[in-house]
Amino acid sequence: MNDLKTSKLPVQDIPSDDLDPYQAAPQELRDVWKSWTKTKAPFPEVKQKLQPAQTTIPEGLLVEEFVTFVLEHLFTLFRNDPRGLESFIDKCDPHEDGQALSMENAVPSGIPDQKSFSKEAFMHYARSTFVQPIQACCNVRSSLSRASTVTRISGLIFLPDLLPPIVQQCLLDMLLHREFSKPENQTNFHLNYYVSYPDNQASFFSTLPHLSSLTPKDPAQNKPLSNRTALDKSLHWITLGGQYDWTNKVYPAEAPPKFAEDIASLVGNIFTDMIPEAAIINVYSAKDKLSMHRDVSEEADRGLVSISLGCSCIFIIGMQDKTTGEILYETLRLNSGDAVYMAGESRYAWHGVPKIVPDTCPEYLQYWPGNLYPQWSEWMSKKRINLNIRQMFESGVVGHDS
Ligand SMILES: O=C(O)CCC(=O)C(=O)O
To answer: What residue stretches are annotated with the Fe2OG dioxygenase domain (predicted)?
Structure first.
C-alpha cells in the first residue's frame, strides 16, 4: 500500500529526462478529455475506483500543523492591517461539522494594539486566545480516514477534504494577496506586459478596478487592460520558487527565489517525500481548461502535490500499462480543500482539466477577498485555484536567494 511517509516511493523505470515535454498525449486520453469539455450540467457522477490508503500522518500533528499555519497568517494580518484580522475573525462561520469557530467570543477585550505587540507577544496572545476554536475548525479525522489510492493509476493518492476551510482561506490570502505581489514571482502578465506593483507589496486586490497596472510591451499586439479585466479574465498563472519557463519548458539555470516558508512547511510536513521548491498557481475561470500533459521538467523523481481551492473541477489522469500497453485512466472530481499526490508511476502520468464545474465554490470562499477589498468581493465565486507544487532537483535547491 502506498504511504505518504515512506522516504521515497518507487518511480517508473523511465527517468524524467527521457520524457519529451513536447510529446502529445495518446489519442485515447485526448478523446476522453474532449468528451468532458462538451459535458453539460447536470454532470454525471464521476466513477472512481478508490481503495483506502494507509496514511501514517498522525492526526494530532496534522492539526498542530494547521493551527501553526493559521496563527502565522493571523499575525501577518494583524501586523499589516488589523482590519484584516477583524474581518478574518468576522467571516469565520460555523464549521460544516457544526463546530462553531467562535473566535469573536474568544476575544475578551477586542483586538490588541498593533504597535505594542511583537511577533512573540502576538503568538503568545493568539495561542491562548484562538487555538481552541482554530483546532475545532481543523477536524481532520474524516479526511484522513478517506485518503485513497486510485486503483488503475499506480502511486496516485487522493486526499479528499485534506485542508479545512480556515486553512484554505489562509492559503488563498497568502497566494493571492502576498505571493502574487512579489515581483520575483512571474505571472502570465509578464509575457506581454510591464507590471506596475502596488506600493509596499500590497495586494493587487487593493487596486482600483478601473485603473491599470499593466502596460503592453508591444501596443500593436496587446491592448491596455484595466485591473478589472486583468484580474477577472486574464490572470492564468503565477509561479513561486523555481520560475518555470513555459516557452522552453525548463527551469532557469540561476538560483530560484526562495519558496515561501509557511507554505513549504505546511506542504513539506504533510508530504514528507518531497521538498517544495517550485509551484504553479493555476487560476481558472468558469470556461477555462488545461489540456492533457505530463510534468517532466523536474530533475527529481519526487511526488507532486496538487491542492484545489474554490470551484470543483473534473481531473483526468492516465498512463500506459507497462506490460499490456493498455491506456489506463481515471476521472476524479476535485473539490475545494482536496489534495492529490502524484507519486510513484503516477508522477509522470498524463493529466488535464477539461471542465470547471460551475457554481461550486463553497460558501466560505465565495466572498473572498471579502470586506477588506469590497470592490473585489466575490472575485472567488467563479474561480478555481490549483496550487501545484514540485521538487526541482534530487539534491534540493542550493544557494537560492533569501
Ligand atoms: O489544475 C489542476 O488540477 C492541474 C494542474 C496541472 O496539471 C499543472 O499545473 O501541471
So the answer is: 275-393
pTM metric for this prediction:
0.91
Question: pLDDT tens, 86-108?
Answer: 766 655 444 444 344 444 444 44
Question: Sorting pLDDT into bands at 50, 70 and 90, what band is 16?
Answer: low
Residues in Cβ contact with 117 at an 8 Å cutoff, skipping those fewer than 6 apart: 78, 125
Tell me, in angstroms, the distance from the centre of ligand 1 to residue 282's CA. 7
What kind of fold does domain 21-55+147-188+235-390 have according to CATH?
A: Jelly Rolls (2.60.120)
Atom of ligand 1 at shortest range from CA of 280: 9
Is residue 306 in contact with ligand 1, taking CB distance under 6 Å? yes
Q: Where are the domains of the chain?
A: 21-55+147-188+235-390, 59-137
Radius of gyration of the chain (CA): 21
Give nearest CA residue, ligand 1 atom 10. 295
Would the annotation count 293 as a binding residue?
yes
Q: Is the CB of 69 within 6 Å of ligand 1?
A: no
pLDDT reading at 186 higher than 80: yes
Cβ(351) to ligand 1 under 6 A?
yes
